[in-house]
Amino acid sequence: MNMTAEVMACVKRHPTLHRWALKAYAVKHPPPYRRANMEFEYDAWAGISSLHNRVGRQIGEDNAGPYPYGQVTQNRYETCKFADSRRGMPMNITSLRLIMPHAKDAYRLTTALRDRYIAHRGLPGPRFNLIQAYLFSKFSVGLPAYLTRRRERPVQEGELGPLETAFYMLATAPFMLVRQTMARGDAISLDPAPMSGQRFYELADASGVLISPRDCVCPASTRLIGEFFDVIMNGGYEGEVNSPEVQRVLELIGDWDRFYAYMQASSRVELLVKLGQAWTASALLALHRGRVAEGSAIEPALQSVLAVALRRSYVKASPERDEATVLRCIRKVLAALLRDHGDEQTLQALPPIDGPGSALASSPPTPVATAERIRRSTGVILNACRRDLLAVQQALGQPCRHSLSEADMLERTGGPDLAALIDRLRAIDCRGRRPREVLVPRPC
């Protein structure tokens, strides 16, 4: 270990030193929630997770990020004894004790926001299916972001209340469940039927939602988890909703239409980025497999960018479902979410993936056709992201800032080397000619 690495390791272990080091680093590299295009550059949960609340803790707790913004927090851990997927794993008892005093108000706030959400959208009933629950769950993730990033009456660093923090931490489960299941090729999210809290718990337990990426598990009891899942899926809270704390948060939100506009636009940006990542990964995977089938040489650059695109799409292949199958499932679920958001026009404008020249066709795709397909899909999604990012800025009361470029979109979907790879693919002609392919837009 060199001297620099030793110093960094020492700083990381010392909370006070680490906190001051992050403050110095943030002068030149501000955390995501202070950046103009946070909603495009980061997934919503990660973008705001390093924000500090009123008790001086980051609202993402053990999973706060992205690197290097997550801080070392002094926590007490116990081994989980609940008889489910969490058994035998560490759980953060300190975090649980901070949330529990506000659990009932979190139920009340969830119910109050559900009622407004359902009325605003004109939904036919109080029960959610997974697609509806995913979009509502983005309100929990986006509430701290909206309060912190808006121009008028912003909540400053270190001022976020405990109820807002608890709501942010608890109500993320639906969007995490949808992400976890589709990333394994499971299309359960497309089931239009409402879901009970118990069924939701069973799926969350089976899909790993109760276990964080850092192998620290949700510390709440099975009963409490089931109770909250029933509230968020079916509005199952019984009792007076309008507590003083709930009224405080609703007054803090203020203009509901503006809050809703921010939530819809920011959630759509995230979905569009994920769709772009899945579209890019699908096109690159089809080319990669086609070249393997032909026995053609595969450039290391193609393998590298494909690995990045698959990782950014959360693809988790298994013996039962390979990457192509999983990517088709991801695209279908993302398309369903965007339709529920009212963005059918973007889906209609996208070039086909499972069409001529794809992995399902009789002949493998050419490098030139692959490059053009990625350019086409990138252009469509870029225009939609520009539209929704402008809506985000308007809802926040912020001036129109840096506009997104094609380079921004390519890097977000396939990493920093995707643009160079596309240029190389367009120059490749394995058969001594430049095949041309007519791409007809079709729905996802």
Describe the secondary structure blueprint for this structure.
Layout: H1 3-13, H2 15-28, H3 38-41, H4 44-48, E1 77-79, E2 90-92, H5 93-99, H6 103-121, H7 130-149, H8 162-170, H9 173-182, H10 197-207, H11 222-234, H12 244-253, H13 256-294, H14 300-312, H15 323-340, H16 344-349, H17 367-396, H18 406-414, H19 418-427
Antiparallel strand pairs: 1-2
Helix pairs in contact: 6-8, 6-12, 7-8, 7-9, 7-13, 7-15, 9-10, 10-11, 13-14, 13-15, 13-17, 13-18, 17-19
Structural descriptors:
single chain; 444 residues; mainly alpha; two-stranded antiparallel sheet; globular; disordered C terminus
Q: State the end-to-end distance.
A: 50 Å
Structural class: mainly alpha
Q: How much is the radius of gyration in Å?
A: 23 Å
Element order: H for helix, E for strand: HHHHEEHHHHHHHHHHHHHHH
Low-pLDDT runs of 5+ residues are 355-361, 430-444
Task: Report the sheet-strand fraction.
Answer: under 5%
Shape: globular
| Quaternary structure state of the chains depicted | single chain
Count the beta strands. Answer: 2
What percent of the residues sit in helical stretches (DSSP H or I)?
55-70%
Number of helical runs?
19
Order the strands across the largest sheet as they lie in space: 1-2
* Mean of pLDDT: 87
Largest sheet: 2 strands, antiparallel
